[in-house]
Amino acid sequence: MLKFSIHKKLDGTLARAGEIETKNGKILTPAFVTVGTKATVKSLTSEQIRSLNAQVVLANTYHLYLQPGEDIVAKAGGFGPFMDWHGPTMTDSGGFQAFSLGAAFGTAVSKISTSDVEVSDTSVNPGQLAKVTDEGVTFKSHLDGSKHLFTPESSMEIQWKLGADMIFAFDECTSPTAPYDYQKKSLARTYEWAKRSLERHEALDTEKQQSLFGVVQGGRYQELREEAARTIGALPFDGFGIGGSFTKEDIGTAVGWVNALLPEDKPRHLLGIGEPLDLFNAVEAGCDLFDCIAPTRMARHGTLHTKDGRINIKNAKFVDQFVPLDEDCTCYTCTHHTRAYLAHLFRGEEMTAASLASIHNLHFILRLVENIRASILDDSFHQYKKEFLERYYKK
Amino acid sequence: MLKFSIHKKLDGTLARAGEIETKNGKILTPAFVTVGTKATVKSLTSEQIRSLNAQVVLANTYHLYLQPGEDIVAKAGGFGPFMDWHGPTMTDSGGFQAFSLGAAFGTAVSKISTSDVEVSDTSVNPGQLAKVTDEGVTFKSHLDGSKHLFTPESSMEIQWKLGADMIFAFDECTSPTAPYDYQKKSLARTYEWAKRSLERHEALDTEKQQSLFGVVQGGRYQELREEAARTIGALPFDGFGIGGSFTKEDIGTAVGWVNALLPEDKPRHLLGIGEPLDLFNAVEAGCDLFDCIAPTRMARHGTLHTKDGRINIKNAKFVDQFVPLDEDCTCYTCTHHTRAYLAHLFRGEEMTAASLASIHNLHFILRLVENIRASILDDSFHQYKKEFLERYYKK
């Protein structure tokens, strides 16, 4: 089970710098969690993940359940050893992908998209297709259309076999457009599922090898978010996830409502966040962990972070720029290659383009969160935030 | 200009172990040349190429001419610096791809296929589509259908800008099914092109930075192969390429006819060969260098070399084999991953599958040729060949 300690709290905010200790190593927080969807960070080797000084990798329960199956992963000793990652690990509950990639594919349950599949923001009400009942979520595999049921119990069983250090309770991830009545009803269900998740987890993990995070939902309603923070926060979880969709404005408010009420001595993970502005706001609002596929998905499409904002390397102007993507960047890509070379690889649709771009974007976001942590420790957070965001967003 | 020295000749064969010195470093021969088609070894970073102890990288003139264009590559200082490869380099003449990927696409000029495109072995006569004249080869870009002309002079000019240490004279790569009369006529043209290549090369490269290899063609006709070896061999080239299609049986004979006549003190490169049996036979027949896309193309399709022959990792039996691809292999992939994990990545169509498989197959072939070299030096070649081939081909 994890140990969480807080090294420093930033006056006048909910931000804190701390440390999570797991059986596979320490995580200095705030920390960005690198997403390794199917027990692989897309286009990278495990050696490249280590070279990025990634602290923790999160794999998706939905994907590994469908392929290769949790039993195969268990035989490998868990998804970490399976992919040759020996640091701290997390898995999500599978619920979010069951909604967004499974039966409810194409409905508005997604703030992020998963894997290579873009989830469009339509106005279809989730639940109509996802077949949510009090028992669990019935969904069809996006791979072969086969029908599956995730319950709080089965999610715990699958995550037990996937073997991550930190796992998540099974929750219903509602659409941000779902009305108050649906959100309220869903929240009650998520609370019941949280208790069932805890119960099954405790029965499975008698030696406390895994830490279970409860998930706070509630849409955009302050009343519901606060209720969820109080009720989920009162359960004996080892940490908390904050789920659901947020606009950039929400993060400073909705996440703050939740974190003001969650127990201070447990880590808080904001699910699916990876934009610079969101990261600053979420840290300020008291979050410790973030995961997002955006750095690698953007990278595969040629959209690259620089301190002066995003660029798309496929743009014609880059084909003869014999300088690094970002001259101050210390990543492998920037210290070995030019914009011209990356532009060439993207135009040639070479696989190495995705690797080099992913290395750069992950390095950028990992270092950003490290710098945010350092700025909490030396009380320069507000100045760092202002300078970084002004330059990045050219305000 | 290169310096070639022979360290050891194997009695009773044409095999020799030697060393090529270029301005970017030494190549111990026999050596396998790693193919970096578009100034990238598909799915690998330059660091990964270095980790494989690759000695020399060959890029394709046709591909780099079309994209990004030789002027961009020249501005980067040549294709080596462009891709962050600082060891010895080669480019081919562009002729082969102009035939096989350009206008003559789909005709039978290919013993290998290039890039991701399979070239089928039809009975269409090359030249009908490729528009070969004494001036050069007119072809259409496989990228956009635009029309281009390669001549011996333009090939030298492009290769000069691409900046490799070793380059090839422009030749006509004939179909193995072309009749004697066509082969004979073509050979006369290749001879004229060889002289024009030399002339243009000498005018461009006044400081002798590049070494030019002449190319020996002649199809399957001993008379023509020997004539080509004598005439091309008498020209002041720095080395020789042996082109055209060969069956497994041809390599021991046709290549031997050529190498018995070529000057002994210059390196010989057999173009497009990368199968274990072919490598042994070609070394025995006096070749020093080989390039082939097969190791990486096979890898991307899941076909992997082991000392017990090829396996296809997509086969169902591998999904729960928690052992390395080849237990004795020292490559990154085999020392970090299991067959089960690779099977999972291939089934999930993950890009990392291609990287890990390419690392393994290149390591396998690079080490094989290193071992062949060692077996020449310690007089165990025949024993090593017999043992390796018996096990690999299960004879």
Question: What characteristics describe this protein?
Answer:
41% helix; homodimer; eight-stranded parallel beta sheet; 2 domains; alpha/beta; 395 residues; 16% strand; three-stranded antiparallel beta sheet; TIM Barrel
Write the layout of secondary structure elements.
The structure is a homodimer of 395-residue chains.
Chain A: E1 3-9, E2 16-22, E3 25-29, E4 31-35, H1 46-51, E5 57-59, H2 61-66, H3 70-75, H4 79-83, E6 89-91, H5 95-100, E7 137-140, E8 147-150, H6 152-162, E9 166-168, H7 180-204, E10 211-216, H8 222-233, E11 239-242, H9 248-261, E12 268-270, H10 276-284, E13 289-291, H11 294-300, E14 303-306, E15 309-312, H12 332-336, H13 339-347, H14 351-377, H15 381-393
Parallel strand pairs in A: 4-5, 4-13, 5-6, 9-10, 10-11, 11-12, 12-13
Antiparallel strand pairs in A: 1-2, 2-3, 7-8, 14-15
Number of helices of chain A: 15
User: What is the helix/strand order of chain A?
Assistant: EEEEHEHHHEHEEHEHEHEHEHEHEEHHHH
Oligomer: homodimer
* CATH topology type of the largest domain in chain A: TIM Barrel
CATH top level assignment of the largest domain in chain A: Alpha Beta
